[in-house]
Amino acid sequence: MLIWDRENWPRHRPWCIGAAVVTLLAIAWYLAYGFRLGEWTWPGGASPPGLAYGIFGGAIILFEMLLWPRKSLWRGRRLGRTVLWMTAHLWLGLVTLPILLLHGGFHFNPAASPLAAVLMILLIGVVASGVFGTILQNIIPRLMMENVPAETIHSQIGNVLEQYQDEALRLVNAVCGVEPAAAEPEAGKRLLVTAGSAGRVGDVRGRFVQAGFEPEVVAGADPLLAFHAEHIEPYLNARRGAGLSLASRTAAQGLFAALKTRLPNEAHAVADRLAELCDQRRQFDLQRRLHAVLHSWLAVHVSASVALTLLMIVHAVLALKYS
Amino acid sequence: MKPETSKRRRSRIELGYYKSGDGYSRFRSALCGLAIAGVAAWTGYACLAGGDRSSGILREPSLLASKGTLAKPHAMWDSQCSACHRPFSPISTSLGSERCKSCHAGPAHHANERKADTPACAECHKDHQGRDASLTAMQDVMCTRCHAQLDQHAETAGQALAIAPAVTRFDLAHHPEFPTLAEETRPAAGRVKFNHRRHLAAGMPAEQGGAVLTYGDLPESVRSRYGFTPGEKLDAPVHLACASCHQLDPAPPAQRGHGDYMAPIAYESHCSACHPLALTEQKAIRHGLPAAEVLADVREYYSAQAALADPDLLRKPLPPARIPSQPGLQDSEAYSAAIDARVLSSARRLFGAGESPDLRSDAGRGGCVECHRLKPGSGEIVSIGSLAGIAVEPVAMRPIWFAKARFAHSAHRAIECSDCHAAAWESRSSGDLNLLPGIATCASCHAPAATFSRKGKAGALCVECHRYHDGDHPLAGEGAPARDAIRRFSVQSFAEGGAPAK
Predict the structure, then answer these.
(1) Vertex B369: Cα angle to B366 and B371 (nearest 5)
(2) Which residues of B touch A38 (CB under 8 A)?
């Protein structure tokens, strides 16, 4: 949902202008009503503008919450373009803040009214987290695109790393002449001869076989075994790569360069491949961090939105009952 | 080695990966569950805590619904919204005012008030402003929205308005002069002759000169009340102060606030020490009697004196008509004539001599007409027969001059009397209505903030002096019948804001 982008801004511009106009009109009506008797009197939530803003803001909140079932329950059904939904979600969400602040009369004192204060705080939290998330959404994807060219699906990082571990072990064993039986896979793990995940084509289930090369045994490639055991396997196997010898790209380049000096030329291709696997591991680590930043705010945003919506309903019922 | 292709990379991904969430989505779901549980717990506690479930009353709605604590008079219903609020009926409407009227009669402002302009109770009386908030203090706009153009808010168009048609704030330009001082609305002054200037002067001498009243001329029992201090000489002139006669009334008229107004001047309390109404040294006239009763009292006195002088007088017959041959009648007629002469003389001194130049005549000071006026038609006192027409005009002094505004002397007791009643020191007649302060005097302190700086200025809201309900008796105090038709509740019903007792 890039906003600060020349290509995307024309799509956001009418929404931005509309939100600004709605906000200014709301403020104008609020002020006009407050001064209607000559002196300023705070319009309450049940006054004409207060009630209108409450209904309008509540309707927006309900629309904003529809994003959740649209994504989770109605997946696959075409209910309008996702871009349109997100644009509306963004700008209408921003409009709710001034609208509902006017509706609530800027009540923040929990001693006076705990529910009103909690609603205000939740509203600010939701909008602030949403704005924060939007800013992140405009920055981090570009960072990922530039710094994580080997990006994979976040939830599959662990799966892919396991496959990298298998491939690295297979390559090292093949080059060093170690029998594949010595690396008999444990129950539940994939066979070394395959490098793909379980898949299905029609009624056929199986695993995709990697279309790669099978390296031949190279004499004098024994240092590779030790290097793999000392550096590569711990790094590819570690839950967190930080702090390990291959975590730094510069250090890894140095280590692999030193390894190559001890290997025959025929084994250098395997070393390069192993270096590539480690580099992808580093990218996955960066991807995880960026993913955490990019998505952690959503936990606050969604949970606060849920609380806000439920309390809004409680507030609406009680306000109408005891207005 | 060949670089890894996208197809190869794609092949590493499990199909159906999207069906199971990652750690972030699980954490998100957990937080949402926590939020739902928190809202449910808070709402449930608010609805059920300490409550009577059978009655369905929210015992702790202040945790959810309250806009703020209630003022002290309503504090006992802080947790009972239904005591004042009809469910789903806005309180700022006429229907919403029904609960208010279960305790408060809220009489109409004026009969001619346009019904559409009659506000609901909660439009003016806004609660939920805290324990110490006033339920009666409100901004002027609640009054001026009608009083700024009063003719547009009268039910009967064109009906003459008794008060100013346009009042917007308390200053000389936007509020009329007080009716007691304005030419066109000035009421009749009290009918008593009183010279404030003379009474406030030391010794109270007449303007054309004369004797000075000293403390020695006063009864010992009242000297201290009129300013005599121990050690002072008895020949010192009597010097009255305002408080010598004017004291705050602990039992005010019309059930207004205690200490707000001055007690009415009573002859027996405030005048008799200097104006004894002594007919003779042995006979004093009772104050307050009609003229006919006074004269009858005088005749009775002199008849008694005659009988005391001649006890045989009572044994002499008094035929209805004069019989020349009967002996002793001449004596009876002589006594009658003498009594008539005495009565006539007393009547002249009490009712016919006008203002006595010398307050301290041997027989008394000035008589009734020194302070009172005779009714028109009383006529000249020329004979006994002419006394039948003598009648004293009632004083008709108003206990409260500002009938439609509230004033509390007790709140102003730190102010010198002369600051507001400066004219009293020059007033020679009680008919001087400038003895009362005008709007300029009040506005010197009670000014809108925009006119003067806030520092040191008193309140200038409409409600500072005026009230809305019951336009005919707007300032009746608590408990006055004209103010509230109080309904009675049982204790339990009252605590629950319920129905009146049968």
Answers:
(1) 85
(2) 141, 144-145
